[in-house]
Every structure is written in C-alpha cells, then in structure tokens.
Design goal:
The protein starts with 20 loop residues before the first helix and ends with a helix. By secondary structure, the protein is mainly alpha-helical. It has helices spanning 21-25, 29-32, 36-46, 67-80, 83-86, 92-113, 125-141, 150-155, 173-179, and strands spanning 49-51, 57-59.
C-alpha cells in the first residue's frame, strides 16, 4: 500500500503525525492557554444555542439575556478567564476565592438591579451564576502554584538519574606493605 500524506484512518484522523493538531499547535503556549473557545461556549449557552457536529450554530429557544446582558456576563467572566490569569501564580484561599467572590457578587448585584433592562427571567439567575463560577474557577485553578499548572507543564519533564558505582580501591604498593 502506498503512503499518502493526506490519508485519514477510519475515524477521520490524519495518519500522518505531522498533520496532527498537537504537532502544529502543541508547542504554542498562546494556543493552549487561549480561553476564547470556552468564552464562546459560554456565550452560546447564554444565547440558548449549541454548536452541532457540523459546526453550525443551532438555536434551541429564547436567549437567557438580551445582548446587553450577555455582554455584561461575558465581560465579567473575561476579566478572570484570560491568558494572563492562567499563567499567573495564585494562591487558592488568599487570592482566587476572594477575587471570584468579589466579581461574582458584583455580577449578582448588576443582574438583580438591571434584570428588566437585560430581559432576564429571574428563574435563570442561578444558571447564569453557575456558568460564571464554573468557567472562572476552572480557569483560575490553572494558576494555582501548588497544583498541576501550565507552568509546570511548560517547564518540561526532567528525570534525574543517579548512578552509584562502588569501586573497590586496590591499595597501592605502600598500602599493601603497611597492612602486612
């Protein structure tokens, strides 16, 4: 069988390893830490839409908020879910929880005060806040200095090998004479 570099296996995956997305983008820290796709998914959820397997956006019903409200929620989330946060070094208790809670409280107040102008059904407030907290917390958890963070991944994997060989020292001529 002749090798064709554009050939795919039965699952549609490229057989040629150089066509693999990880080969092309795996070493790009910008690509791997970019949260834009996750923010896009959050926007789709707020608009009550999904992305089908063909890449087409399908609307499932009425949006949870109008465009102004969606902009507010995405903007508040974007303040925490970004590449700078991911590559930071944050402590969970001292920095992450207070920051998420502060932004979350501000978002709750704005949603309560402007629910009519955002065309928000009060039954959806919990859903919006769970979206915000889940996206923000997972992103910020990547910045924890003690956890499995991206910084440790980029530092690389180092295996330290120690070889210990024991060599018996043979006494020299003077040592042999001395020990007799």
């Amino acid at each position: 069988m002749e090798y064709n570099e554009n050939q795919n296996n039965d699952r549609g995956m490229a057989i040629n390893p150089y066509q693999s997305p990880m080969y092309n983008y795996g070493s790009s820290i910008i690509y791997l830490t970019n949260p834009e796709q996750e923010l896009f998914k959050m926007e789709l959820a707020l608009r009550n839409q999904i992305l089908d397997k063909d890449g087409e956006i399908k609307t499932l019903g009425n949006p949870i908020l109008n465009d102004e409200g969606i902009g507010l929620v995405i903007g508040a989330t974007q303040g925490l879910v970004n590449q700078i946060t991911i590559m930071s070094s944050l402590d969970t208790k001292k920095e992450i929880y207070p920051l998420i809670n502060h932004v979350g409280d501000t978002l709750i107040k704005l949603l309560m005060l402007k629910s009519k102008s955002y065309e928000l059904d009060t039954n959806n407030k919990d859903y919006i806040m769970s979206l915000f907290y889940s996206f923000a917390f997972i992103c910020m958890k990547r910045a924890v200095s003690d956890g499995l963070s991206d910084k440790k991944f980029w530092r690389g994997s180092v295996t330290e090998v120690h070889n210990q060989t024991s060599q018996e020292k043979k006494p020299g001529l003077l040592g042999r004479l001395w020990n007799k």
